[in-house]
Amino acid sequence: MVTKTLNNQTRTQIIKDDTFAVQTYNFLRNAILNNEFEEGEVYSQEQISTILKLSRTPVREALIELQKEGYIRFLRGRGFEVLSPTEKELEDILDLRLVIEKAAAGWAAQNATELQVRFLKQNIALEKESIKDSAGDDIQEFLDLDEQFHSIVWDASGNGKISSITTNLRSQLLRSGHRILQVSKYRKSIFGEHKRIMEAIAAHDVAGAKEAMEAHISNTRSRNKKTSE
User: Which of 94, 104, 147, 180 has the highest CB neighbour count under 10 A?
Assistant: First the structure.
């Protein structure tokens, strides 16, 4: 396999921050999500260091984190390869999310504080504003709001382990999520599903929250299949 040359016409900025590894991680993850790296191709760590004008250490740290999350794998002496999750891996992740997040929604309906409910309502209001952009120019904004919504639900559940487990699962679905959000009607559907989950949690309706979350994850599975065909 030939090492792929990275086309870098728009990514020439120097990263200026004390947390170089975090900044590098964000740069590389966003580049993968935006298909600036081709799946199945091999890239050089040295090339990334040159582009970002950084030493190899923060680049290596960022790549190690991306490998943990399933975005890349190291190839000894050759750099790293961008990975594409298999259909079976995506199905397994969604199966786990269904079990964990359905339970989390039910616990959130039981345990959510007034402040957490307020955060959910604020998130839904921002999602509503975001989907008005029918051209879909800012998919990242909705993706961030989607991640924030689920994070609030996890925190409201009162189970401190859910966030660390589910964050990792969701990170492995970000590429398919990014693809899904390019379809305007799907952003509107997700907003509606989130709104139903929020309303059930705000009403402390345990069964309703679990049912709404189950429908949301099931619909996510369906959207993923349709956009990957």
Answer: 104
Distance CA 100, CA 118 (A): 23
Please provide the CATH number assigned to the domain covering 87-228: 1.20.120.530
CA nearest to 105, candidates 158, 57, 60, 52: 158
Task: Please tell us whether the domain made up of 20-82 is placed in CATH 3.30.470.20.
Answer: no
Q: What is the dihedral of CA 91, 198, 136, 129, to 10 degrees?
A: -170
Burial of 205: CB neighbours in 10 Å, binned 0-12, 13-18, 19+:
middle
DSSP 180-224: HHTSHHHHHHHHHHHHHHHHHHHTT-HHHHHHHHHHHHHHHHHHH
Give the distance, in angstroms, between the CA of residue 45 and the centroid of all CA atoms in the same chain.
24
| CB distance 81 to 158 below 8 Å | no
Residues 6+ apart with CB under 8 A from 184: 131, 134, 136
User: What pTM was estimated for this model as a whole?
Assistant: 0.74
Amino acid at 64: I
Give tens-digit pLDDT for 71-122: 899 998 889 998 877 888 889 989 999 999 999 999 999 999 999 999 999 9
Residue type, position 46, single letter:
E
Instruction: For residues 208 and 200, give the distance between their C-alpha atoms in angstroms, rounded to a whole number.
Output: 6
Give residue limits of the domains in the chain.
Answer: 20-82, 87-228
Q: Can you read off the two tokens belonging to residue 95? A: 């199966």
What does the DSSP assignment read for 118-152? HHHHHHHHHHHHHTT-TT-TTHHHHHHHHHHHHHH
